[in-house]
Amino acid sequence: MRRHHRTTPRPRTPRLPRLLGTLLLVASAGVLTAGSAPAASAAPVPLDRIIPAPAEVTPGATPYRITAGTRIRVDDDPEVRRVGEYLAGILRPSTGYPLPVTTTGAAGILLRLAPGPYGTEGYRLDSDASRVTLTAATPAGLFHAVQTLRQLLPPAVEKDTVQPGPWEVAGGTITDRPRYGYRGAMLDVARHFLTVDQVKRYIDQLALYKINTLHLHLSDDQGWRIAVGSWPRLATYGGSTQVGGGPGGHYTKDDYREIVRYASSRFLQVVPEIDMPGHTNAALASYAELNCDGVAPPLYTGTKVGFSSLCVPKDITYDFVDDVIREIAELTPGPYLHIGGDEAHSTSHEDYVAFMDRVQPLVARHGKTVIGWHQLTGATPAPGALAQYWGLDTTAPAEKEQVVRAAKNGTGLILSPADRIYLDMKYDKNTRLGLAWAGYVEVQRSYDWDPGTYLPGAPASAIKGVEAPMWTETLQASADLEYMAFPRLPGAAELGWSPASTHDWDTYKVRLAAQAPRWDALGITYHRSPQVPWPAL
Ligand code: TNX
What we know:
Layout: H1 16-33, H2 39-42, E1 56-59, E2 64-66, E3 72-74, H3 78-95, E4 101-102, E5 108-113, E6 123-127, E7 131-136, H4 139-152, E8 167-169, E9 172-176, E10 182-188, H5 196-208, E11 213-217, E12 219-220, E13 223-224, H6 233-236, H7 253-265, E14 269-276, H8 281-286, H9 315-331, E15 336-340, H10 349-365, E16 369-373, E17 386-389, H11 397-408, E18 412-415, H12 418-421, H13 443-447, E19 463-470, H14 478-485, H15 488-497, H16 505-513, H17 516-522
Parallel strand pairs: 3-4, 3-5, 5-7, 10-11, 10-19, 11-14, 14-15, 15-16, 16-17, 17-18, 18-19
Antiparallel strand pairs: 1-9, 2-8, 6-7, 6-9, 12-13
Bound molecules: ligand TNX.
Signal peptide: 1-42
Enzyme class: hydrolase
EC number: 3.2.1.52
């Protein structure tokens, strides 16, 4: 019963079996609960009311109810047990139940690894009166299944004090796997420094929507945010301020390891970015010898772009880049290292190409695969490199063609169109945070596009996924980040995960509205866009 993913959206007719199933489910839940618990709130969340939309749903008749006696039964495998404990950690505070994680028993909530058509991140969820079974080929698949289970429970499950329940999961089966392997979110920790705890909080929010990549923009004109042992002033001096002139900050190597560890406990890889050859004022200010004229500029706390460049002809530039890449590659278990390459307006085209020709092999030498912003396609992308497209609908055709040509020649693409999923763009003219250079981006605009057809001419196989960047010129507190990310981030996650055939704004906005009580329970600030039918406050 596997459904084949389509790369083009199908016409907007709802799939009849799914719709019928949902109706049946709602009806049967109503009958089952009549006379016991309060009917309206007791109907369990329909299996297809989650974000990202699951690939395939078959409703069943009887829900599963978590009770004081429920056990979480896991395979005898340390990683599966870890996912079981993570689930218990979510359920225990709000249910008040002990929910022991055990390796025995056949009822309750079961987490099992088994071969099947799940790929590296897919899963199956089966729910009936006696058990909920999560099955996947990998711990990552089980972790994503846990996020699905979480969204199938009432929003109050997210609270950290005991709530009344009941805790029912609709009966039936979900079979699910992602459309794309790269589903990312970026945090710019350079314009405003974000603490390790802020990054962890965001990681937890990403995990809820099955995002598997955290891209950290670790350096820019306003700050260098990671300790480099061989060039210590980068962090201690180059990291000592930020936009607006505040104290800035940087991650020690242990801080960074802790972010990587925490991300990996949520099955996210970290992609570190050192932006080069432009966006380098913090480095140039820290070491005079990196400048062509040998003079260090002052630190910079404004928001202009395009004024700085590493000195392309000097050999010391490549000693510097080699040291930085080596030390960051050593700390990074994931395969990718992002070298930026955007807005190098102070680097000649010739120098830009020469720089990329020398730097990309250094990334390979330290065992990593290059990612660059799509301007990298104006040079010669290394074999296997990925280009991150951040253009707009209105980007000049020649620039899009250059990206498409690279894709045809084997460069993979990550799609981050700025007028769609730049999370720092204002929603409308009244948004008090954010920028508007790519226009206003309301929720429907951010959701309503198809990564598979977005760049006409790019081979479908070149599209590796979607990433939602968050630039922080105007953002500092977690509440700021959340206000910009919610509700647009779940849409980016759905574009990366769900089959194109599920794409439909009218049903999506209802699913999105249903997330709001969960955000409230989690303390997440969000924008109550007038485009979404939110529940009353
Ligand atoms: C463009 S996107 C930039 C960043 C800014 C951002 C603000 C990109 C690769 N470069 O330097 O922070 O716009 O939205």
